[in-house]
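Expect chain and fold; see below:
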Amino acid sequence: MIADVNSRRSIALANDKVASKAALKKAGVRVPETLMTIKGLSDIAIADFADLPESFVVKPNKGSKGLGIVVLHRQRAGTWKNGDDTWSKADLKEHLNRIFTGHYSNSGAHRDTAFLEELVTASSVFEEVGAHGLPDVRVICFEHKPIQAMLRLPTKLSGGKANLHRGAVGMAIDLETGRCTRAWHDNREVSENPATSETLIGFEIPKWPKVLEEAAKASRAIDLNYCGTDSIITAEDEVVTIEVNAFPGIEIQNVNKTGLRSLLPYRTT
């Protein structure tokens, strides 16, 4: 179905995070600031990280499923914390080299680009449901209109990752109200955060009309008739789009207990 409604050009643009961020920014969609782009070994060799902010994110340009993404917090000059580990400049450059040589590439290519971007922090309202990490909102758009949504809630069980396969909770969101109507964790329905017991059902996503507006705008910017957009509601009360996916997966159907095909205005082959 995806190949029927999305052009190869648009799919390629979505898979190129640096290029898609530029397209989103040009269309007026708020995205995290890119701090540095690493395109080759020479860039790695001469890279000076002294002017980077206290915290930042390292990403592969053509990665998927969160692989290769690292969040670093400055510990002292030339060293950073990555979870419980301490990274030196050499460790950071080694990770950049792994990205450059295609270790995390979703296309199987032997070369990729790495980029460093600002670390976006989530609104404190997500503490009400026990967020442990950075929660994001996935919105599925068809013909640039939202048709299904969920909140991916990172927990202590997921190690702070907003990935359902790693233990995050999927929270179905009613498109009209922005409220959670159902929650899904470890292939079963839940009503509370499995790690900290906060009630999930009824939780209301802040800035909900803006979330839907930005999702539709992002799908138009990348020119995808079917896609999933991922956004964060920040501590500054902004909606920031972190990614547009041409192949957003089907987990959202389990979370909502509703097949996507039934939501389409007409059947696709």
About this structure: Residues 147 and 262 are 10 Å apart (CA to CA).
